[in-house]
Amino acid sequence: MSDLHPDPSSPRDDAADMIERLRAENAELKLELEQTRRTSQRYLQNVAHQLTAPLGAIKWSIEGLKDAEVPMPRKIKLLSSIYSQATILVHLIKNFTLMSNLEADHELGQFRDKPEPVDAFRLAVNLANDFQPQAAETGKKIIVDEISFTIALKSKSVLMVKNLVAQALSNLLENAVKYADFATTISVTAERFVPVADKAPVLGISVMSTGMPITPEEIAELCNRGFRGKAARQRVPAGTGIGLYLAKRVMTLHQGTLVIRAKAKESRFTLVFPLDRLV
């Protein structure tokens, strides 16, 4: 006598289920690809805008220098503006190049270049000097606290890949100059501190500024690639959101991290190194 009830797990039913799952997975992949395409398009548009702005400013300033009717005091200001915009341009290009290099490295902890002992105070001073003209345009100034570096470093150097850490610190300075309030002071300091109770002390190099408030929720997201806080987007609509992401990745390569602290309008971004990198 034949079985009148088909097997619920027949090959036909299994094939139908598999086809349905494949359709669902295909639809999900299409959605992810579309989201990736839109994100990449927005990113490229931001990159193009950020590169175009300083190039346009440099071109306009050069045209002013060529004008015989422009007085010399004005030309001196135009030269300062050219230097400032060129600094921004170089900084942006370095960021994009660094991101490509870091994204190509699937294994963190492996340096492309050999770490070397670096005078962290001198590095901070040189980078601060690079951004001084840009800061001065909006009445801001950058101060590197030599005493704090002397106390924290104790005449020692920091073992690092100089160009990577220089770019990470440049990202913090560039953000501070961009987002700090008009006519305020940006401070660069160094300190030894204990990040978590019962843990070993670390070395921190911080950039502090007064400007836009940062919420606790935003702090948790700031190091994610492409993320920008609400106040930052309002003040500077164009931006790639990769500066802090890169800084965090660079510090991870140095067995450290990036710590962000904020209270009201004051913020502190700290590059953290383990003390065993002092040599």
Question: What does this 3D model show about the protein?
Answer:
- The protein has a single domain, classed as 2-Layer Sandwich (Heat Shock Protein 90).
- Helix 5 runs antiparallel to helix 8.
- By secondary structure, the protein is of the alpha+beta class.
- It is globular and about 85 Å long.
- The model has no long low-confidence stretch (mean pLDDT 83).
- The protein is built from eight helices and seven strands, in the order ααβαβαβαββαααββ.
Return the string of H and E elements: HHEHEHEHEEHHHEE
In oligomeric terms, what are we looking at? Answer: single chain
Give the CATH class.
Answer: Alpha Beta
- Report, as a whole number of angstroms, the end-to-end distance: 88 Å
The total number of structural domains is 1
CATH architecture: 2-Layer Sandwich
The CATH homologous superfamily is called Histidine kinase-like ATPase, C-terminal domain
Strand order of the largest sheet: 2-4-5-7-6
The averaged pLDDT comes out at: 83
List how many beta strands DSSP finds: 7
Percent helix range: 40-55%
- Stated plainly, the CATH topology is called Heat Shock Protein 90
| Percentage of β-strand residues | 15-25%
Q: C-alpha Rg, in Å? A: 25 Å
Structural class: alpha+beta
Largest sheet report? 5 strands, mixed
